[in-house]
């Protein structure tokens, strides 16, 4: 419901990295501790911010391996754990320490004792030195997490810390003790409509009424509008409604009962009716009927005069409500009643409307029943109504989920009984969903249909990684136009070497350079070798960027060494972190930079824009990368440190 109111250097020499060379490189500052294995006491913990390798909860040895001191910032491990794996302060970049400690402060599991230990480890920490966007939100986030003790320490050590928004964050998350602390600081002001936003909070926090009472009696800058009571009604906060009614003058609007009726809060509807005078509109009964709140429909009918509109019966969620409205109300319904019930799969209502009302339906009834797979309703409408469906109804047949046998039965029914023509959209949907049975059915009925010439079925099957369907199409439909270079490109994109080999040996389309790029992205060495040996003209110098950006060290090494006649160079894109990954692969970055695979000029002209301005993720993800570039390229980016 919408409530309105990089000296360019080309080299063919590969640097061999040994432990001795790595240990002297600055990037070890932040990852040296990750090689440490835990002892026997593994902690089973979930991450506050899961990384791309997340497979659910992580144990301690996995958490220790995550870069950027994630054990602190993302997992908020206890000090008794952290102290065993925390590197010396000078082995971690200053910026990284600032960021990690700041982020720790607002983690739900953060504790004051661990924070004190972290500040002892990094005594030069000062939140005012972190990027402004983090500094401005630090106190706000700490307050929102309810860490009164941490917030008090921060304000004591850094009296000019920005407190804007802290009161609102604490209030909206139900942290009374934090609100009491913030009352001591005049600079901690709040939004004058703060009570509105609290009342608009769902029923997750049990003490919202306590928070509102505290704000009302203790903060003169905390106010509200009529929206507070309206939104409290929508969320079912009767205690808040009563308090606002007795202690404030803003009141509510006709939408209070409307919202409560929509959400099914009977006690709120009842109280508002007997204690307020704003009333409601026909939307109250209409939406109660739409959402199946029969008791509210009855109450509104018995106690109020606004009534309803035809929308009530048109959108009724239950037969009980439909029958009640039919008997007790005069508004009736329109053809939308059967249309909407067909869409929602409510056969009992469809049948009742057919036999007891005269409004009928439109072709939309069967269209939507087809779209949602309501076969029983489709058959009822076919046998009892004359409206039928639109010519393109089959375009929306649900191909995935549910009973596959019923889907083929439905398609057969539609073709045989309703004489529907198969469309391009229908065939594309079937192939995208890997529905070989449906493709076979259509092929058997009309193998020469013009539909097959309107798109490239093998391309589409490859794009969606349906190898069995690809083979069937190849052996049963011999048209060359059924595929293009996109087929092999898609096989590479899907990381399906078997399908790619099949296409190479059985089709004549070939591939583009995108195939090697995508194979590199997956780090699939066998696929890279196959493409290089069989399609050398498709060698892509961009492939090494794709491999690097996705952390594929073996692929980077292969691509760097296999094409010695023209060793590939990288762009700064090789150092970026594509979603959904959150961390660089520093082994890859070390290899690229130590072998000078990025031209110096590119670093000079593009590094700041790419690594510092959030075009490729957050700038804090690249602190160590910039440090590594400075190490290998004579401090060329020293101005960014």
TrEMBL record:
InterPro entries: Ankyrin_rpt, Ankyrin_rpt-contain_sf, SecEffector_AnkRepeat. Pfam families: Ank_4. Signal peptide: none annotated. SMART domains: ANK (SM00248). Gene3D superfamilies: Ankyrin repeat-containing domain. PANTHER family: ANKYRIN REPEAT-CONTAINING PROTEIN. This is Ankyrin repeat-containing protein. It comes from Cavenderia fasciculata (Slime mold).
